[in-house]
Design goal:
The complex is a heterodimer of chains A (about 230) and B (about 240).
Chain A (H helix, E strand, L loop, with lengths): L4 E5 L10 E5 L4 H4 L5 E3 H26 L24 H9 L2 H18 L4 H5 L8 H21 L3 H19 L5 H8 L2 H22 L16
Antiparallel strand pairs in A: 1-2
Chain B lengths: L1 H9 L1 H6 L8 H9 L10 E3 H4 L1 H4 L2 H20 L8 H11 L4 H28 L8 H23 L4 H15 L5 H10 L6 H32 L4
Helix pairs in contact in B: 6-8, 7-8, 8-9, 9-10, 9-12, 10-11
The chains are: A mainly alpha (about 230), B mainly alpha (about 240).
Chain lengths: ~230, ~240
């Protein structure tokens, strides 16, 4: 069996009566370190919480004084605005609907995203967080190129350049440690990042790009509109 | 002055409410947390590392803060709002022109709602990138993801209530997405949500009840479990 624990002994009998701690891999904060410096919750934590809350309320109040919440004409089912947009956090989805059939863009992909988020902690590979290039480099490279290739072909078929370009850029960063083996802090940092990090970062970049396009770059008939031509 | 205050703090009435002394010694500081209903979600001592702002960026706490602001402003807005057509819209106009600070109240509610969606999402990113979903916190991560969905639903159900063009068509677009669900499920769910086939009077009432009662209660229960588990797993 692989030895994924280390034995720790404390000599401070007052604090740690004869005890051996088995620390398996990366785990919860409470067993991570012993003898950490502690502070009293009152005042150290509570005061910070109160300040954070007050600053937040003040910022909100200033924003509320400066900018009015939008209110258009009374709802009229006979008069469809062009474009009809959902609130901003759904514009990434609406952008997806522009490329994919409704079942894929409106149901399958968002459901997949939520399920993917939920299952993250239940995969050992995510919990261990070993660098992407720590295993068999050649095999990792082939698997990566094949998977990205399949995704890219699908995206190309539907002409989803808004997802294709970020995907390719992120893949380029992913393979940097494969080609540049020279010791360099940036390359080393990239090489130590686990697969889960890359997938999540890819997901976040796609969400941000799609939401930004849907919010700022889409006008009448969902056509491409530059922000200076008007934000719809 | 000080002696008067001291006499108040030592009086039986005060002590019946607050059983501990002023937080002047570490003992009474610990008791302040331990015996206080609102503070007892925290341990009496925390790691110095975890009170540092950049450790969590305070994003979870700010989400709660925004929820509190939204509850207060939301309750005040409810006083001036009738979920029917066309009263809903005229009440918006009243808030704008008749109610004292009505516009400010609505602005605060609106911007806090947008902020909450963003902050909860950022909180999820922070938890992911610091690896805080690792065992034994797997299930708390799941609750967190559900809370993100709940936050979006809260914001979305509120979006219809002003009953202007923005609300109506925003909700129409969204429920058309729901309709795309296969096996006839989409039509069923959309009918259930709207209380009909189109966004109308019954949709407004349903979204109102969902927004002001059902989803907030669900959110509060989930938040209770979320914080309790954070604490049990060794967090603040």
């Amino acid at each position: 069996m692989e030895k994924d624990f280390k034995v720790e002994e404390s000599t401070d009998v007052k604090k740690t009566p004869k005890r051996i701690a088995f620390i398996k891999g990366r785990t919860a904060a409470r067993v991570k370190q012993e003898d950490e410096e502690m502070v009293m919750t009152v005042p150290h934590l509570v005061v910070r919480e109160i300040i954070a809350f007050e600053v937040m309320v003040i910022v909100l109040a200033i924003i509320s004084l400066l900018f009015d919440a939008p209110l258009e004409w009374i709802a009229n089912p006979d008069h469809t605005p062009n474009p009809a947009k959902a609130p901003w956090y759904f514009l990434g989805l609406q952008e997806l609907l522009h490329y994919f059939p409704p079942v894929v863009g409106g149901v399958l992909l968002p459901a997949l995203a939520v399920v993917a988020l939920i299952v993250i902690p239940y995969f050992r590979i995510n919990v261990k967080g070993i660098g992407l290039w720590k295993g068999n480099r050649k095999r990792t490279f082939v698997t990566l190129i094949v998977s990205v290739g399949i995704v890219s072909i699908v995206l190309l078929m539907f002409e989803v350049f808004a997802m294709l370009i970020p995907t390719l850029i992120i893949t380029a960063f992913m393979v940097v440690p494969y080609f540049f083996t020279k010791k360099n802090r940036f390359v080393e940092w990239l090489g130590n990042l686990p697969l889960s990090w890359w997938v999540m970062t890819w997901f976040v970049v796609i969400v941000v790009v799609l939401t930004a396009i849907g919010t700022l770059f889409r006008g009448p008939g969902w056509s491409w509109t530059w922000p200076w031509e008007g934000i719809y | 002055m000080r002696t008067y205050l001291e006499r108040v703090f030592e009086s039986q009435v005060w002590r019946s409410m607050f059983r501990h002394g002023l937080p002047e010694s570490n003992r009474t500081r610990a008791e302040t947390v331990f015996y206080n209903f609102f503070l007892h979600v925290h341990p009496t001592k925390v790691r110095r590392r975890s009170v540092k702002f950049t450790y969590t960026w305070g994003l979870g706490g700010l989400s709660v803060g925004l929820f509190i602001v939204l509850t207060v402003t939301g309750a005040l807005l409810m006083l001036y709002y009738r979920p029917s057509i066309p009263q809903a819209y005229s009440d918006m106009k009243d808030l704008q022109f008749v109610v004292s600070s009505g516009q400010f109240l609505r602005n605060m509610h609106r911007w806090a709602a947008h902020a909450m969606v963003a902050v909860v999402f950022l909180h999820m990113l922070r938890v992911f990138y610091t690896g805080s979903y690792r065992p034994p916190k797997e299930f708390n991560w799941v609750i967190g993801v559900i809370l993100l969905v709940v936050t979006i639903l809260l914001s979305y159900t509120g979006y219809l209530l002003p009953w202007d063009q923005l609300s109506f068509w925003g909700i129409s677009v969204g429920t058309n997405m729901v309709r795309a669900m296969p096996f006839g499920l989409g039509d069923q769910i959309s009918f259930l949500l709207l209380g009909g086939n189109i966004v109308g009077e019954y949709a407004l009432v349903r979204f109102y009840v969902l927004h002001c009662f059902i989803i907030p209660v669900v959110a509060m229960i989930l938040m209770g479990i979320h914080f309790w588990r954070v604490r049990k797993d060794g967090g603040v």
